[in-house]
C-alpha cells in the first residue's frame, strides 16, 4: 500500500551535533534583525503611524505620472502611488498630516475630490484614515498583546513541564519573533495590525510545535531512564519528525492558497506565515532542543555521561 | 476507550447534524430564507465591513469644549448672581476649569461666596437627591474662585458621551442605514459602523455638525465690519458667505434654543419655490417665541446654527402659532440634512472623526471570493496530503475536517458573529491546526503498530498518548487567542474568535468523531492490520 512519507521511518539523524551551529546561526540572524529593526526600520502601516490609504479603480489604465503630479500639487507631503492587482487599481498612501486627528479626514476628502476631478469615473474602493492618537494606542495595544502572549506561554509551559522547558520555549520564541520582525524589515512589507496577528499566529504555531516535541522528550525521559539526555533529545526529535514535517506541510498547504489568491490584504499575511512555518519548524529542532540540552544536562536526569560525576545532584525525571 | 455507549454515538451524530442544520442558513438564498421562521433564518454569520463594504468611523467627543461650556455658564451665572446680591467686582476670569472673581471690596467675600453657591449643582446623586457639588468655592482676600470638581468633570464627560451617542443614533437612523452599530469606546469615543455605506461623506457631515440652534436678536446699529462688538454682543459670520451681508452683530443672550423644537421638515416655499426648513416649537418654546416676536416687531431676528447665522429675517408680525421657517439658499439635500439635524437635537459638544475605514462593496465582494477560494483550495490540498499519507484514516481526518468547518460556521452563526477577512484566515489556520491533531493520532497509531501491538491496543494507545499532547498544544494557542481577543480591535478580534472555535471544535472532531469512525470501521471489518 502506497503511503506518502516526508522522511523515512526510523531516522537516526544526530541533530544535536549541529546544536552550536544552529544556535549561532539563529543568534546572528536575530541580532541582524534587531539591527534592521532600528536601521532602516520597519515600514509601519497607517495603523501604527497614522495617515491615509486610498484604493481607487480608474476607468482606464491609470496614468501614474499625471496622477502623481496632480496629487503632489495638493501640498500634503509625500504621496506614494502604487499599482496593485490590475493596471486600473491604484493604491495611494499619504503620510500623517500635521495637525490633529481630524486633519487626516480633511486630507482624505481632498484627495477623493481631486481624484474625482482629475480622473472622472474613478471608483474609490477603500479609504482608511487614522489619526495620531488612535495609531499610538493601536501600537501600544499590539505590543501589549505580544508581551502578554509571551508571558502566558512561559507560565503555561512552566507549569505543564519543568522550568527548563518553559525557558527554552520562550527564548526560542524571542529568537523566532525577532526574525519575523527582520523579515518585515527586509521585505519592506507593511507592519500593521495584521502583522501583529501574523506574529501572534506564528508564536502560536511555534509553541504548538515545541510542545509536541517537548512532550515526547518528557515521555522518553520516563521510559529510557539511562539514556544520555543528548541521545534522548535526538531520539525524540527523530520520533516526532514525521509528525513535525507533516503538520508543517499541511499548514503550508492551507496557507499557500492564502498567499496566492488571498487578495492584497491576506497576501502579506500568507507570505509571512509561510516564512514563520519554516522558522518555527526549524527552531523546534535547532534552537529549542539545544537550549534544553544545555539547561537540562545536569538537572533533568542523572547518569548522563556528559554530566560530570555529580550523579546525585540532578533531579529525578520529570513528573 | 474504544467502546462507545449507544447514547454517546447518538449525541455525536446529533451534534454533527445540528451543526449542519445551523450552518445551513448561511448558504441559502434570500428568497428561501424569507420562507423560513425568523429565529432560524437569522442564525447567520454577518459579514464584516471589510467583506460586505461599509464604513467604520471612530468619533471623539471634544471634552475640552464640554468643560469650556460649563465654565462659561458659570461666568454668566456669576455675573448675574453677583449683580443681584449687589456685590461689586472688578473682573471675572474663566480659566481652564475654574472661574475667578476679583471683588472690589474684600469685606463682601462672604456675600460673594453665598451668591456663587447658588450656581452649584449636585451631581452623581440618585433620584432621592444627594450627590456631590460640582463646584468648589473658595475665597481668599478679595479673590473668590469656583472650581469644577473632579467628580463634576467625570459626570459631565459621562453625560456628554451618553447624550452624544443618543443624538448620533437618531441622526443615523434618519439616514436609513441598515443595522448600524453605535457603541461607546473608552471614556470619550464613539464607534460607528455603517454597513453598506459607500460614500460616508454625508454621514460624516451629519455627525460633524453640532447643530446647536439658537434664536437671537441682532443689533442693527452696530457695524460688524469694525470687528468689535459692544458688551453682551458678538460678531457671527453668515453661513452662506453672505447673500445680504457677511456677518452680523448678535446678542449673546439666547432667546430661544433648539431644544424647544418639536419638529422640523424640509419643504418648498409655495411662492418662491426655494427650499426651506419649517419648524415647530413645543409649548414652552411657542410662548417664548411669541413673546419675543411681539416685543421686537420690525427688528431682525437671527437664526444661528453652530455660531453661524443661517438667516436673519426681520420680524414682520408677532408669531404666535409656534411655527416658523428658515430660508437660506438651501438645496433639497441640504434642507433635508438640516431638518434631520434639528429633529435629532444638538450634540453637547463637537465630534471629531479620528479614524475612518471605508471599504467599497465591490472590493468586499472581491475579498470574499478570494477568501473562499483560498479556503477551498487549502482544504482540497490538505485532504490530498492526508489521504496520501494515511489512506483510509486520512480520509476519516478529511471528513472530520469538513465537519470542523461546518461546526465552526454553526458556532459563529449561533453567536451571530461577524466574519472578517482575518476571520477567513483564521478558519484556514484552524484547519491547519486541527489537522495537526489527526496527524499526531495517526503517527502515534503507526508507532504503536510498529512496536508490534495488536490492532485494538495500537488504536487505544495511539489515542490516549496523542490526547495529552493535543490538549497541551491547543491550550497554548487558546490562551493566546484569548489575549488577542481582549487586546485586539475590530478585525483582529474576529480572527481570534474563529481560531478559538476552530481549536475547541477540533478537539471534538479529531479526538471524538474520528475515533468513532475508526472504531466503527474496526468493528465492521475486523482487520488484521491497521491501514496507516
What do we call the CATH homologous superfamily of the largest domain in chain A? Multidrug efflux transporter AcrB transmembrane domain
Mean pLDDT of chain A: 85
Which class of secondary structure composition applies to the elements of chain A? Answer: alpha+beta
Percentage of residues assigned to helices of chain B? 40-55%
Helix/sheet category of chain B: alpha+beta
Largest pleated sheet of chain A: 4 strands, antiparallel
What is the terminal-to-terminal distance of chain B? 19 Å
Low-pLDDT segments of chain A: 302-319
| Spatial strand arrangement across the major sheet of chain B | 9-10-2-20
| Total domains of chain A | 2
Largest interface: A-B, 78 and 76 residues
Strand content of chain A: 5-15%
Roughly what is the average pLDDT of chain B, rounded to an integer?
A: 85
How are helices and strands ordered from N to C of chain A?
A: HEHEHEEHEHHEHHH
Strand order of the largest sheet of chain A: 3-4-2-5
CATH topology of the largest domain in chain A: Multidrug efflux transporter AcrB transmembrane fold
Q: Per the principal axes of the C-alpha atoms, what is the gross shape of chain A? A: elongated
Count of extended strands of chain B: 21
Domain unit count of chain B:
3
Cα radius of gyration of chain A in angstroms? 25 Å
Radius of gyration of chain B: 35 Å
Secondary structure blueprint with pairings:
The complex is a heterodimer of chains A (319) and B (532).
Chain A: H1 19-41, E1 43-44, H2 46-49, E2 51-57, H3 64-72, E3 79-84, E4 86-94, H4 102-118, E5 123-130, H5 132-160, H6 163-187, E6 190-191, H7 193-223, H8 229-261, H9 263-296
Parallel strand pairs in A: 1-6
Antiparallel strand pairs in A: 2-4, 2-5, 3-4
Chain B: H1 6-23, H2 30-34, H3 38-41, E1 46-47, H4 49-52, E2 54-61, H5 63-84, E3 89-94, E4 98-103, H6 109-117, E5 122-123, E6 132-133, E7 135-140, E8 143-148, H7 150-175, E9 181-185, E10 189-195, H8 201-208, E11 213-217, E12 233-237, E13 247-251, E14 256-257, E15 261-268, E16 275-281, H9 283-295, E17 301-305, E18 308-311, E19 323-330, H10 332-344, E20 351-359, H11 361-414, E21 418-419, H12 421-450, H13 455-487, H14 491-525
Parallel strand pairs in B: 1-21
Antiparallel strand pairs in B: 2-10, 2-20, 3-4, 4-8, 5-6, 7-8, 9-10, 11-14, 11-17, 12-13, 15-16, 16-19, 17-18
Amino acid at each position: 500500500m502506497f503511503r506518502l512519507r516526508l522522511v523515512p521511518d526510523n531516522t537516526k539523524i544526530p541533530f544535536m551535533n549541529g546544536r552550536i551551529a544552529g544556535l549561532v546561526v539563529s543568534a546572528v540572524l536575530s541580532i541582524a534583525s534587531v539591527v534592521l529593526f532600528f536601521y532602516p526600520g520597519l515600514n509601519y502601516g497607517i495603523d501604527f503611524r497614522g495617515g491615509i490609504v486610498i484604493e481607487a479603480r480608474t476607468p482606464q489604465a491609470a496614468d501614474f505620472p499625471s496622477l502623481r503630479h496632480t496629487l503632489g500639487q495638493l501640498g500634503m507631503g509625500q504621496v506614494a502611488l502604487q499599482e496593485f492587482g490590475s493596471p486600473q487599481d491604484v493604491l495611494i498612501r499619504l503620510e500623517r498630516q500635521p495637525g490633529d486627528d481630524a486633519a487626516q479626514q480633511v486630507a482624505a476628502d481632498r484627495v477623493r475630490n481631486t481624484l474625482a476631478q482629475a480622473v472622472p469615473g474613478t471608483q474609490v474602493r477603500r479609504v482608511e484614515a487614522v489619526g495620531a492618537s488612535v495609531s499610538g494606542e493601536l501600537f501600544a495595544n499590539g505590543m501589549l498583546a505580544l508581551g502578554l502572549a509571551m508571558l502566558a506561554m512561559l507560565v503555561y509551559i512552566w507549569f505543564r513541564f519543568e522550568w527548563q522547558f518553559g525557558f527554552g520555549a520562550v527564548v526560542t520564541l524571542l529568537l523566532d519573533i525577532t526574525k519575523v520582525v527582520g523579515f518585515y524589515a527586509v521585505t519592506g512589507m507593511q507592519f500593521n495590525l495584521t502583522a501583529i496577528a501574523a506574529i501572534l499566529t506564528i508564536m502560536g504555531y511555534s509553541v504548538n510545535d515545541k510542545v509536541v516535541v517537548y512532550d515526547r522528550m518528557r515521555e522518553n525521559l520516563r521510559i529510557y531512564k539511562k539514556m544520555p539526555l543528548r541521545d534522548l533529545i535526538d531520539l525524540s526529535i527523530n520520533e516526532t519528525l514525521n509528525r513535525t514535517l507533516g503538520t508543517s506541510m499541511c499548514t503550508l498547504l492551507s496557507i499557500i492558497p492564502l498567499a496566492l489568491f488571498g487578495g492584497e490584504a491576506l497576501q502579506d499575511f500568507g507570505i509571512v506565515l509561510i516564512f514563520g512555518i519554516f522558522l518555527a519548524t526549524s527552531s523546534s529542532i535547532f534552537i529549542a532542543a539545544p537550549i534544553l540540552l544545555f539547561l537540562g544536562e545536569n538537572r533533568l536526569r542523572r547518569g548522563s555521561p556528559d554530566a560530570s560525576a555529580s550523579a546525585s545532584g540532578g533531579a529525578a525525571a520529570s513528573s | 476507550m474504544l467502546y462507545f455507549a449507544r447514547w454517546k454515538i447518538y449525541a455525536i451524530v446529533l451534534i454533527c447534524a445540528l451543526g449542519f442544520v445551523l450552518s445551513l442558513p448561511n448558504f441559502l438564498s434570500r428568497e428561501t430564507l424569507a420562507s423560513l421562521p425568523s429565529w432560524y433564518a437569522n442564525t447567520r454569520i454577518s459579514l464584516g465591513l471589510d467583506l460586505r463594504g461599509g464604513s467604520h468611523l471612530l468619533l471623539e467627543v471634544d471634552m475640552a469644549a464640554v468643560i469650556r461650556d460649563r465654565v462659561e455658564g458659570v461666568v454668566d451665572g456669576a455675573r448675574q448672581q453677583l449683580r443681584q446680591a449687589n456685590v461689586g467686582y472688578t473682573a471675572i476670569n474663566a480659566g481652564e476649569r475654574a472661574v475667578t472673581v476679583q471683588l472690589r471690596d474684600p469685606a463682601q467675600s462672604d456675600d460673594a461666596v453665598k451668591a456663587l453657591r447658588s450656581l452649584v449643582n449636585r451631581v452623581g446623586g440618585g433620584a432621592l437627591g444627594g450627590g456631590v457639588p460640582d463646584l468648589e468655592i473658595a475665597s481668599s482676600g478679595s479673590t473668590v474662585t469656583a472650581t469644577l470638581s473632579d467628580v463634576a468633570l467625570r459626570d459631565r464627560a459621562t453625560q456628554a458621551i451618553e447624550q452624544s451617542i443618543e443624538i448620533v443614533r437618531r441622526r443615523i437612523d434618519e439616514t436609513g442605514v441598515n443595522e448600524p452599530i453605535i457603541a461607546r469606546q473608552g471614556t470619550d469615543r464613539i464607534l460607528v459602523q455603517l454597513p453598506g455605506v459607500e460614500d460616508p461623506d454625508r454621514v460624516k457631515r451629519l455627525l460633524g455638525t453640532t447643530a446647536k440652534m439658537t434664536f437671537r436678536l441682532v443689533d442693527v446699529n452696530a457695524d460688524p465690519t469694525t470687528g468689535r462688538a459692544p458688551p453682551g454682543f458678538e460678531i457671527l459670520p453668515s453661513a452662506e458667505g453672505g447673500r445680504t451681508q457677511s456677518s452680523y452683530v448678535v446678542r449673546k443672550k439666547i432667546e430661544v434654543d433648539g431644544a424647544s423644537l418639536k419638529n422640523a421638515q424640509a419643504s418648498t416655499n409655495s411662492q418662491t419655490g426655494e427650499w426651506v426648513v419649517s419648524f415647530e416649537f413645543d409649548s414652552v418654546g411657542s410662548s417664548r417665541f411669541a413673546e419675543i416676536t411681539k416685543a421686537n416687531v420690525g427688528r431682525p431676528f437671527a437664526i444661528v446654527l453652530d455660531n453661524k447665522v443661517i438667516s436673519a429675517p426681520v420680524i414682520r408680525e408677532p408669531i404666535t402659532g409656534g411655527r416658523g421657517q428658515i430660508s437660506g439658499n438651501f438645496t433639497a439635500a441640504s434642507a433635508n440634512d438640516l431638518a434631520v439635524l434639528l429633529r435629532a437635537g444638538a450634540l453637547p459638544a463637537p465630534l471629531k472623526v479620528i479614524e475612518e475605514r471605508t471599504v467599497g462593496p465591490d472590493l468586499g465582494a472581491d475579498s470574499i471570493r478570494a477568501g473562499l477560494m483560498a479556503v477551498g483550495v487549502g482544504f482540497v490540498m490538505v485532504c490530498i496530503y492526508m489521504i496520501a499519507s494515511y489512506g483510509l484514516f486520512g480520509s476519516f481526518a478529511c471528513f472530520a475536517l469538513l465537519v470542523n468547518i461546518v461546526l465552526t460556521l454553526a458556532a459563529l452563526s449561533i453567536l451571530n458573529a461577524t466574519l472578517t477577512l482575518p476571520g477567513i484566515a483564521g478558519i484556514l489556520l484552524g484547519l491547519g491546526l486541527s489537522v495537526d491533531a489527526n496527524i499526531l493520532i495517526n503517527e502515534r497509531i503507526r508507532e504503536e503498530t510498529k512496536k508490534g501491538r495488536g490492532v485494538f491496543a495500537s488504536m487505544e494507545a495511539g489515542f490516549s498518548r496523542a490526547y495529552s499532547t493535543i490538549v497541551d498544544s491547543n491550550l497554548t494557542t487558546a490562551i493566546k487567542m484569548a489575549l488577542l481577543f481582549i487586546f485586539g480591535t475590530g478585525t483582529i478580534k474576529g480572527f481570534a474568535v474563529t481560531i478559538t472555535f476552530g481549536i475547541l471544535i477540533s478537539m471534538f472532531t479529531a479526538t471524538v468523531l474520528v475515533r468513532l469512525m475508526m472504531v466503527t470501521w474496526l468493528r465492521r471489518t475486523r482487520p488484521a492490520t491497521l491501514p496507516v
